[in-house]
Queue: 4 jobs
Job 1
Amino acid sequence: DIVMTQTPLSSPVTLGQPASISCRSSQSLVHSNGNTYLSWLQQRPGQPPRLLIYKVSNRFSGVPDRFSGSGAGTDFTLTISRVEAEDVGFYYCMQATEFPWTFGQGTKVEIK
Amino acid sequence: EVQLVESGGGLIQPGGSLRLSCAVSGFSVSGRYMTWVRQTPGKGLECVSVIYGGDITYYTDSVRGRFTISRDISKNTVHLQMNSLRGDDTAVYYCARGENGMDVWGQGTTVTVS
């Protein structure tokens, strides 16, 4: 199984300041078709997960442009350019390149 | 509006069975990647099962042989039949569309095996 490792596990941030989360996979996420199926999801308290970013850097419909994704191969980053109060919650990376699809442990973003 | 609504969770004794349903509106489940994902405080998010293409299925090792995913095109619904339930199957179970990762999620249904 591909292991997804996120750092940090907790990220206290100041409102209006940037935040970034790293995700490393135990093997390359480049699929044989050339796509890299790395996604980022947000889970607010009491809510189901919500897709933010797919295929490394594509923002999903309705996602604010302060969220961006980058990376390649085995190393990926989610960046929030200016954290807002509504961004509090857990963030997960997920790979869908190979079964079983696997998730990172989650990173808790909270306001200082 | 695209919407997934899960049902069928509850409290069940070890060894029992439950059938989860995911009622879909706003798109057809036919040919789509549809998944069941479970979440526990201890193990986080886990993709339990996927159905895609011409009803090709995938199961994570811990449920293979006990769980069965299926879809009913006429009712636009996806099911997860869970047999021989164990304590470590206790979780919130989400139905999600497996496009671009997992782009649409239901609210979840709670399964407690005790």
Job 2
Amino acid sequence: DAKTTQPPSMDCAEGRAANLPCNHSTISGNEYVYWYRQIHSQGPQYIIHGLKNNETNEMASLIITEDRKSSTLILPHATLRDTAVYYCIVRGLRYNAGNMLTFGGGTRLMVKP
Amino acid sequence: KAGVTQTPRYLIKTRGQQVTLSCSPISGHRSVSWYQQTPGQGLQFLFEYFSETQRNKGNFPGRFSGRQFSNSRSEMNVSTLELGDSALYLCASRRLAGAQPNEQFFGPGTRLTVL
């Protein structure tokens, strides 16, 4: 799996958009960008994933640059409950035996009132 | 649909003991993976099972083992516990076929404390 780089921490005001960047300059053509988050002492929660087009679901939007070397996760209206560690991961969509998730350090997002 | 369940949620053991943790995947999910999470090392992959066979293994000593049953439920065992084994142990399942085959869903974890 390609290595990702994320800032270790970010702050965001409640109600504002949180924009979390991720660099994945070595991503290969068949690898997707996945985002998970982990609220303190809970298991990681899947948020969204994408290949090259921007994606949106009820939780967030994912913007992937045209060269696919970086992406941004957007939480449009952050709430206090969005305070968590956010992990950006790249991996292939199809299963193979070596295709386990490799988590980096993630970004600790602190949403403040 | 019920999520991934793990039992027990909390466990306290002493050095030298062994422990067995249990994981029930989401219905229809065939793969179960185990991860260890500690403040110092972060989230680290232990092993993955599907079709009752270990398919992939992380860099952990042989004291860490696992198995999967025909109903896809999985257990992991840690023998001769050490203080450094204190961690949150997470189980994740994925479908492997059909819609979203590779998306992993995590359980709440088992918090193991070794005294």
Job 3
Amino acid sequence: EIVLTQSPGTMSLSPGERATLSCRASQSVSSSSLAWYQQKPGQAPRLLIYGAFTRATGIPDRFSGSGSGTDFTLTISRLEPEDFAVYYCHQCGSSPITFGQGTRLEIK
Amino acid sequence: EVQLLESGGGLVQPGGSLRLSCAASRFTFSSYAMSWVRQAPGKGLEWVSTIRPTGAYTYYADSVKGRFTIFRDNSKNTLYLQMNSLRAEDTALYYCAKLRGSGVSECPDYWGQGTLVTVSS
């Protein structure tokens, strides 16, 4: 099983700042099978990034994904008030399919 | 836009059964793989099961294998999850998710709002 470890667990930043979220895999993940989701309280997850770096439809360009192998990063260049949420990385290329434990991005 | 509407959740005793449904619309349901993903209260996301477009191939997490069955009716644009021998640890919000393609190595791109399953005596 591929274990995805996200860091930090919680991140406190202010609007306008840059956020860098990390996702480390216990073994190599195909870049085509790495995604990032945003989840707000009481809502379903929303796809932000797939294939490690491709933005999903309608996702603002302040969101970007990068990385390969075992290390992946989600960057939010300038935080907007609506970006404060929980973020999950996810690998769907190796069974069992796994999610990271999440990074909570909170307003400082 | 894609719509996924789950139903069938509720309160069930340990050892009981439930069948979840997910009504899909605004996309060609029969062309896409589909998954169930659950989220225990206050916890993260856990993959449960995936089914390929024709229904011929299914995949399960070890935690539900032998107890849960995923199936679909492409004529009704509906995905199902039959859950038997339910345990307290199955308590969660169950999401239906559409995968980006027909293969099981595709990640979900759309999610329903979820249906809550509570297993308790």
Job 4
Amino acid sequence: QSVLTQPPSASGTPGQRVTISCSGSRFNIGSGIVNWYQQFPGTAPKLLINNDHQRPSGVPDRFSGSKSGTSASLSISGLQSEDEADYYCEAWDDRVNGPVFGGGTTLTVL
Amino acid sequence: QVQLIQSGAEVKKPGASVKVSCKASAFTFTDYYIHWVRQAPGQGLEWLGWITPNSGVTHYAQKFQGRVTLTRDTSISTAYMQLSGLRYDDTAVYFCARRWNKSFYYFDYWGQGTLVSVSS
């Protein structure tokens, strides 16, 4: 059971907008920032969004993040087939003095 | 460019120990926290602990207390993760990742992962 809650799956057709949610508590999302990672099979996670909504260099602006209270979301607009991957949210948890992750969301482009 | 290069795959028997290395390059090793995260087959990401290479201070997830040991050798910019008392459910890919600090930061670089298989 992951500390942060994400839907296990999401899907959309090319060109659509998809949003993935991430729910936490005052001990993690509510007291800090949220980061999002993208992971393709057999590879390491890659930083996609940091500090709630910032995109690292090289990440397309189709990807955006937001946070409100103890929840966050990742949105992908203009969905493309190469966006098929697993997406994880992450936040620091003061109770464990370490990061906690969502269970991951598998995105399928139909 | 910044890299974290991990050691190769391991196959271990139940009850044994495994030690995985993570060599840093192109950045000042002692400026960052090094964390270890694992991923069981078909599962999500699970945090094991962190070490501050500068001082060697460590902190472990409660689940792994007593079984995991994080160390580092600053002379070769390498961090190590040792997991003892291996069980079948420790079979996973183990990643190292760097983080500048704690709560208001993120994992910007990850190692390629090391598969640890526990099998009799």
